[in-house]
Specification:
With 250 residues, the protein is α+β, with helices and mostly antiparallel strands. Helix content is 16%, strand content 44%. The protein folds into 2 domains: 6-117, Proliferating Cell Nuclear Antigen; 135-245, Proliferating Cell Nuclear Antigen. It is built from 4 helices and 18 strands. It has a 9-stranded antiparallel sheet. Strands 5-1-7-8-9 form a 5-stranded antiparallel sheet, with helices on one face. Strands 13-12-11-15 form a 4-stranded antiparallel sheet.
């Protein structure tokens, strides 16, 4: 029996499936950095307009045995096909006995093992981002998903506006669609506002990451006038996914 180089298991495979659903729309390949203190991933989309950053601490896993850093490079579409077979209440386990391949084990309903080749994927060079935002708000994730879906059906871009009353998402097209997130409506949990702000972002890019709204009931959005939009999804397990999207100028 070979000793594992690394091995960890996570209770709900659907979290990984939702993250991968979004990731596969942005990049063809990615690299999971598996470290003694947890798992990280950074990916920049093909057009360099958006960035996804995943962090899951070791405490979020059911079992976690990683003594040295291990990089798992994979094709996002291929891995998504594997995880697409997963169901509710199934868990996922990753194990490597050899640096060249990773065993993915999905268990719960019926157990299955997949042996996946470990690809040599260079992580993207990401400059240190120290972004300050005029707006920081916690809003309802499913409400956000609905708003983006409705607006992207009629518009290429979404205008985000914030004032002391709350956040408004609005179409920029001949057909007016406007969705308000306020404390009164229940869509807004809290908001910190340095000053009112508005900025425009691509509907397509926001549409691509809507699977991430399944990670948590609330999501945190941050933006300023014509600055990047930051969306943070805090997973129930303790991990988080941050999505950054450049504004549409003009």
């Amino acid at each position: 029996m070979l000793n594992s180089i690394m091995k960890f298991s996570y209770d709900d495979v659907r979290d990984f499936k939702n993250i991968l659903t979004a990731l596969a729309k942005l990049v063809d390949e990615a690299s999971l950095k598996i470290k003694p203190d947890g798992v990280e991933l950074v990916a920049i989309d093909r057009a360099h307009i958006s960035l996804v950053k995943l962090q899951i601490p070791k405490e979020a896993f059911k079992d976690y045995d990683v003594q040295e850093e291990f990089n798992f490079g994979f094709n996002t579409q291929y891995l998504l096909k594997i995880l697409s077979t997963s169901k509710r209440k199934e868990s996922i386990e990753l194990e490597a006995n050899d640096p060249s391949q990773v065993i993915i084990r999905i268990s719960g309903g019926f157990n299955r093992d997949y042996v996946v080749r470990n690809l040599d994927v260079s992580p993207p060079e990401v400059p240190e981002l120290n972004l300050e935002f005029d707006v920081n708000a916690s809003i309802n994730s499913s409400g956000f998903k609905k708003a983006v879906s409705q607006i992207s059906a009629v518009s290429d871009t979404i205008l985000f506006k914030a004032d002391e009353n709350g956040i408004t998402l609005k179409s920029k097209s001949e057909t007016d669609v406007e969705v308000e997130f306020t404390k009164e409506s229940g869509g807004l949990q809290d908001i910190e506002l340095s000053k009112p702000a508005e900025s425009t972002y691509s509907c397509d890019y926001l549409d691509d990451i809507l699977a991430l709204t399944k990670l948590s009931g609330l999501m945190k959005i941050s933006f300023s006038d014509q600055k990047p939009l930051q969306i943070q999804f805090n997973m129930e397990s303790g991990g988080n996914v941050i999505y950054l999207l450049a504004p549409q100028m003009g």
